[in-house]
Sequence to fold (710 residues):
Amino acid sequence: MRILIVEDEPDLLASLAQALREEGYAVDTAADGEDGFFKAESYDYDAVVLDVMLPKLDGWEILKRLRKLKKTPVLMLTARDQTRDRVKGLDTGADDYVVKPFDLPELFARLRALIRRSADQTTNQIEIGDVVVDTAARHVLHREKPVELTAREYALVEFLAVHRGEVVTRTQLYEHLFDENESSLSNLLDVHVSNVRKKLGAEFITTRRGHGYAIE
Amino acid sequence: MKIFNSIKWRLQIWYGLILVIVLAGFGLTAYQLERGRQFRRIDDELLRRVGVIAGVLHHPPPRRLDAGEPTFDRPPPDQLPGGGPFERDARPPTEFHLPPEAVGLFDTNDPNHFYFVINSRDGGELARSANAPKAEHVWDNRPSAKGDTLPQLRVDFFHSTAIQMFGKFREIFQTLPPGETIRVGCNIAPELKENWLVGLKLIAIGGIVLIFGLVGGWWLVGRAIRPIEDIGTTAAKISAGDLSQRINIAEAESELGQLAAVLNSTFARLESAFAQQQQFASDAAHELRTPVSVMLTQTQTALARERDASGYKQTVEACQRAAQRMRKLIESLLALARFDAGQEVLKRLRFDFRATIGECVELVKPLADQSGVKISAEGGSLEITGDPERLAQVVTNLLTNAIQYNRPEGEVRVKLELQGGLAVLTVVDTGQGIAAEDLPRVFERFYRADTSRSSANNGLGLAISKAIIEAHGGTIEVFSQPDAGTTFTVRLPV
Fold:
């Protein structure tokens, strides 16, 4: 899952990015409105964390422009906690709203819920045969036993599970599993896929030659 | 208790009292006038009759031929030797008959009609009409305490006359000089009854007028008090927290209308001050949210798992920056609060303002170099009186703004000169300028022309500068041309 954070306070941006990366997300950052909008329209992020007060282009404007192009889930971060601000945020097309100062666990839970809803899921558990993917606890059960996966392996399983039945291209996987700072070495993805197959069974991920991967 | 506390009731009670007094005075006067008029009429009638009787006693009519004997046993006055009135004393009349022309004056059979009693000078009764009351009254000519007794004593050389009431009778008593006394009276019960009816009528009319007066007064007082009630209701709503309430002013010109207008303008100022206060508190809270978010996110991330020393160091450094930002904000808020409360005590020192400006320029030089902005200061030394530290704060703030909002390779020019007895400091930058619609608001608290939130600037700098300059009795102005630059001008008394 790849997330964009648009926030102009450098310390807040850095710690948010670090925390989300440690949660297993691929994270892109933008420190002003123009950069944020450019990135948001260039990539298909799984979610955008958007501050309201930004230099150059404020959060409302980014949201308004983005909504004409994409349905990317957007979580607004703001220091304004008055009802009218919240109403304005939600009416402009924000999917959720978090008031500063916030607690990280809450922000993470809201992001998970946002991503889940955008994939039309109702629960945090996805069952695929004898494999259960728990997106809240961020672990995978195989025959009711927990499976040791690296963060990147888990992210791969989760992304394919969320898009179950669809063929996910390698480009899509790169876009959603790696952030802008990582060099996309093509065989890195193959290594992850092969590791997951070792742990969850060779049939768990099917390869569509010339197209990509899928979980049936 | 409540009734006596209510202005409406108190006004009504006083108004009612005054109305009762006026009506009673008016009614009593009317009653007295009517009674006096009636008595005067009766008295005139009585006096006329006394006069007739006295005339008969003085000048008895000639002996009537048909009667064959004289009415009085003395000769007519023209036959008396000497002809003077005192001559009559020689032969007092012994009997009295009403002359025919006077018979109509006394209906001797009607007990309510006029009667007469004539006594001779020796006290014996000379004549008495049939309708005269049997009971004898004791005449007392001294003024008595009784209100009914009206000793309207008229004493002339010949006669002494008195009028007195005896129960239902009003009587005139006249003593003729030789000693005969004439009493003419009548039963005035009908007149008294009439008087009483007049009194009753007056009371009834007075009562009706009083009722109308009270009702009208109640209506008037209610009308007069309604604006006060409106004011009270509105004030109560405002006191309950609804500051948007205003008094509905119907008559703007009346005293209460003017009062309501004054109150409305007070309420309006109160509301805007309150809104400003709320905005200020909300802005202050808003400014504190971001550093608190930084600290929370940083510490929660750091504590989520084991870190190496440099990881913790980064977190601690970020927290320190956030805390310093909060400290700066809190100091600014406190300074503003002290200026607002008039508690900020400024030093009054004589110092060289030019030297202070030089120090400030040196202070911001690193920042200017970093942004590639050139600073130049001109002007000779100029001594002023004030608080050097506070004024240095203003200068530093203006310089920092001029550098931050400048273009790269821009310029900041500082000039100090003496103009018309004032020290005039101008800080000119070559930045992007401030839009015309933002200009009036740059001194407002937390106002920032661009929405960015660089941590160096909390939006209070210019507000504090303005407070400091104004506390020195000076002024601060801003002039700006978009894309050309901004000029801040500070004028301080020397």
